[in-house]
Amino acid sequence: MFGTMNPCETFRRRPGRRLVVNAMCALGVGLIASSCGDGADGARHAVGGVPAASCRSALEWMGHTYYGDVTGRGLPATGAAVAPSARQPACDDTNNASGAAAKVSVRRLVGVSPEIALRRSGDTGRLVFLIGGVFTALPGHPLHRAFWGSRSRPYRPGQGRRCEVRGRVDRPGVNDLGIADGAGEVSSVAIDARTVIDGAPRRGGQPFLRQGATARVVGRRCTDLETGGERLTAVRVTVLG
Q1: How many domains, in total, are found in the chain?
Q2: Both 166 and 200 in a single domain?
Q3: CATH of the domain at 187
Q4: Mean pLDDT for the chain?
Q5: Is residue 28 part of a domain?
Q6: Is 30 in contact with 233 (CB distance < 8 Å)?
Q7: Quick check: 58 and 212 in contact, CB under 8 A?
């Protein structure tokens, strides 16, 4: 469909490093200014499960990691408890240590599959836990409006000609992913409301990019003004295996 694409050589980064490619966890303020970003929705979002706090806000449930994020708007009502309990990993940050890992009870949100989103029992406010690899930026996600407010957001237009990267999905977050090539170098990829995902299995009714899947990403370059690093805004992601 796109013809021959140039490789996105400028997006390569060393293995083990993970660029933060969106703004951090919601604190009721606008997105950090970025030539990649759409800051009009008035909320910040965790990427790759890394919130503004030093320790990750995360749960492990049914073999998958769910990352804590805060919506800019209200969530659906909290529904019934789901089994089994989730595991909350220990926080070993010396500024905010929480001791050993613990089991916590979790609940679903009304109208949202627990396969993609969970609430901790007893939580109030707008905190929700989202599975990595299913993206709230896509308009079909049941929590899209809670996070972004409009089907046209987020919009990260990028600059320059389209190019492509191929490799294995690396540490997918809630609105971004890495693509690791055979040498272990990882390209940082952002998802926006216009991204099309082909060939992915479905989880909770949504396309799911699992860790280790082989994928081809066609997109455009953009620059994160917070980090100064470059990333790729995906136009189309095709799962190859």
Answers
A1: 2
A2: yes
A3: 2.40.50.140
A4: 79
A5: no
A6: no
A7: no
**Residue 19 Cα distances to 13, 30, 71, 146, 186, angstroms:** 9, 20, 22, 25, 10
Per-residue pLDDT reduced to its tens digit, 109-133: 999 999 999 999 999 889 999 999 9
Per-residue pLDDT tens for 135-154?
999 999 999 999 999 999 99
Same domain, 209 and 235: yes
What span, in angstroms and rounded, lies between the C-alpha atoms of 109 and 69? 14
Domain span at 214: 6-21+156-239
Contact by Cβ (8 Å): 164, 207? no
Domain boundary among 148, 175, 205: 148
Q: 48-104: per-residue pLDDT in tens?
A: 333 344 566 899 999 999 999 999 888 999 999 999 999 999 876 545 455 688 999
Give the integer Cα–Cα distance in Å for 232 and 184.
Answer: 17
Burial of 85 (0-12, 13-18, 19+ CB in 10 A): middle
